[in-house]
Amino acid sequence: MVVAAHPDDPEFGVAGCVARWTEQGDQVYFVICTNGDKGSGDPDMTSERLAGIREKEELAAAQMLGVKEVLFLRHPDGDLDYTRELRGEVVRAIRKFRPDVIITSDPYRKYFWHHDHRICGQVVLDAVYPYARDHLSYPEQLKEGLTPHAVKELLLWGSDEPDTFFDITDKFDQKIAALKCHHSQVGRHAEKDLREWVETRAREAGQKIGVQYAEQFHRVVIPM
């Protein structure tokens, strides 16, 4: 299960891996915390219209990657707050989809990092351990048939300390294609510039394991 702050974050962070996992038969779910209603340089764009556009873009990208389901939590972009409600929403998603692995943004990255990315990552870490695991946490969800679930591990993208790398060389073009679904975001950049920006980072990660392109994460094994 991928939990991201904004539409397009999964494609930047983990699209190559998702394409590989779904191809080999794994079920992948996306949970998007905000509606992305602030990410536009168009002076004529409204937040309401942008939120609808970005949701459609994420659905198109997810379909291209073989994602089984996308859950939109629809919190306002840029104002993601750590609340019991948000944490409960993530706990509910964990108990519903019951993933072995959760992928999200590293909340402990220093300096240049979006506020929503930090909050999203922290909420996910706390939701995984101990809240989703313990039946006395959010007990109202038991009445919905959502029983506790223990996630086995976390993969954090955007980390200052990556220690886990996945070869995405044969999925790199699919990653770019998925990113291009987010035209409201990447359309402001030349296609060549977008590809070069993503390619540079994928190549740097790939060099660490001797492949052309890779995605990198900090891995956390949950002690149970």
What can you tell me about this protein's structure?
- The radius of gyration is 17 Å and the shape is globular.
- The protein has one domain (2-221): LmbE-like (Rossmann fold, 3-Layer(aba) Sandwich).
- With 224 residues, the chain is an alpha/beta fold.
- The mean pLDDT is 95.
- The strands form two sheets. It has a four-stranded mixed β-sheet with strand order 4-5-7-6. Strands 1-2-3 form a three-stranded parallel β-sheet, with helices on both faces.
- It has helices at residues 9-23, 47-65, 84-97, 115-131, 172-180, 183-186, 191-207; strands at residues 2-4, 29-34, 69-75, 101-105, 153-157, 164-167, 214-221.
- Helices cover 42% and strands 17% of the residues.
Radius of gyration: 17 Å
CATH class: Alpha Beta
Instruction: State the share of residues found in helices, binned by percent.
Output: 40-55%
At the fourth level of CATH, the homologous superfamily is LmbE-like
Elements, N to C (H/E): EHEHEHEHEEHHHE
Unreliable stretches covering 5 or more consecutive residues: none
- Whole-number mean pLDDT: 95
- CATH fold-level assignment: Rossmann fold
